[in-house]
Amino acid sequence: MAATGENSGSARSRAVAEVVELVSTLIRFDTSNTGDLATTNGERECAEWVARQLEDAGYTTEYVESGAPGRGNVFARLPGADPSRGALLLHGHLDVVPAQAADWSVHPFSGAVQDGYVWGRGAIDMKDMVGMMLAVARQFKIEGTVPPRDLVFAFLADEENGGKWGSHWLVEHRPDLFEGITEAVGEVGGFSLTVPRPDGGERRLYLVETAEKGLGWMRLRAKARAGHGSFLHEDNAVTILAAAVARLGTHTFPLVPSDSVAEFLAAVSEESGLEFDPGSPDIEGTLAKLGSISRIIGATLRDTANPTMLNAGYKANVIPQTAEAVVDCRVVPGRQAAFEREVDELIGPDVEREWITKLDSYETTFDGHLVDAMNDAILAHDPQGRTVPYMLSGGTDAKAFAHLGIRCFGFAPLRLPPELDFAALFHGVDERVPVDALEFGTEVLEHFLLHS
């Protein structure tokens, strides 16, 4: 069904005109999430500002604190032409990971617009998409646009700590907010990857996230008899734990390419002429030819278990009774049981393990009307583009929404310069997003929602 109020593209839209300022302002809110309620700034101030921007455009909003003070979330619904169709959820998180100002070229919460970029923590994870959502939502309401189906805009807390005080809390305690929603679009998809073609040209592939690895933060614990540091000790908790951590951290899990990864590799092979055979012993070497994105793609071929934290002892001359470690585990869909068996064999019987956080993997197919609408929107603004599915090595709030039976995708469109090391910007120093990419993404998102 055709939407009413569609922008003809003959002039710069209201949304494109304001998206850069919206993103810059969003970045200036320090919403750093440390993972600890006592030290996390919280999203309330930013969420209230988002609500005001929506209300000024004519929306009725709902502000919800998700289980802890300051963990602010904002919801707004735009009715569509066909209320019998399932609604589409657009979700973006307001929190960001912390940043040390001394390490940056610009202040990480300045939202500086310079050298063709918007700079700051959250510029690509994910206040860029939040700004695009907000810009398009405002335009639709102000101009009286009626999309084909209901659109629900959700601006969320706590994604950077697994969504315990955000999406997962909302799904458990406020499922009414998601009533009637059948599909969802969120972060870490829709960005371009430029690959060389055999004829000397280039093709921009726009990666649509159709799958996510499982996310699990695991605590390992070794216990032994405490004692004086000068004595002989057959059992030392630190030594036991360190050996287990070393075995796990240096282990290579088997290659298990999922459908999403296989489809991505097939598309890249077709466009580039390179052979990306998941069964090849040098698949990582071939992937390296794709540049920085190979770090994400390579991590989707197998499970990973990376030790990230160690804690033991309280004095130099005391053998501690307990030593602990935390391991960041990311598991390919369908591999959870096999992964845990492999971990148990590696750490051995003298080390206990427990899940601090355990979130399921997710995978859907790359087909259907919504996928067609994504592809059409990309081609409308980049005729040389092509959408392809891929798996995210990390995780998003989609993990929570999948529990409600919502079909989830990552589609935050950005046309990126080929030389930009996009993967390094996630949680990195000097995070930034090109102004041109923001404006392109806003146009694509607008087109997509008018035909979704």
Summarize the structure in short.
By secondary structure, this protein is α+β, with helices and mostly antiparallel strands.
Can you characterise this structure?
It is built from 13 helices and 19 strands. The chain is an alpha+beta fold. The model is unreliable at 5-10 (pLDDT under 50). It has helices at 14-28, 44-56, 127-143, 167-173, 237-249, 259-272, 283-287, 294-299, 336-347, 369-381, 398-401, 422-425, 435-450, and strands at residues 61-65, 72-78, 87-93, 113-114, 117-119, 151-156, 181-186, 191-196, 202-212, 214-223, 227-228, 304-312, 318-319, 322-331, 351-359, 362-363, 385-392, 407-410, 432-434. Helix 3 (127-143) crosses helix 13 (435-450).
SSE topology sketch:
Elements: H1 14-28, H2 44-56, E1 61-65, E2 72-78, E3 87-93, E4 113-114, E5 117-119, H3 127-143, E6 151-156, H4 167-173, E7 181-186, E8 191-196, E9 202-212, E10 214-223, E11 227-228, H5 237-249, H6 259-272, H7 283-287, H8 294-299, E12 304-312, E13 318-319, E14 322-331, H9 336-347, E15 351-359, E16 362-363, H10 369-381, E17 385-392, H11 398-401, E18 407-410, H12 422-425, E19 432-434, H13 435-450
Parallel strand pairs: 3-6, 3-7, 7-18, 9-17
Antiparallel strand pairs: 1-2, 2-6, 4-5, 5-19, 8-9, 9-16, 10-14, 10-15, 11-13, 12-14
Helix pairs in contact: 1-3, 1-13, 3-13, 10-13
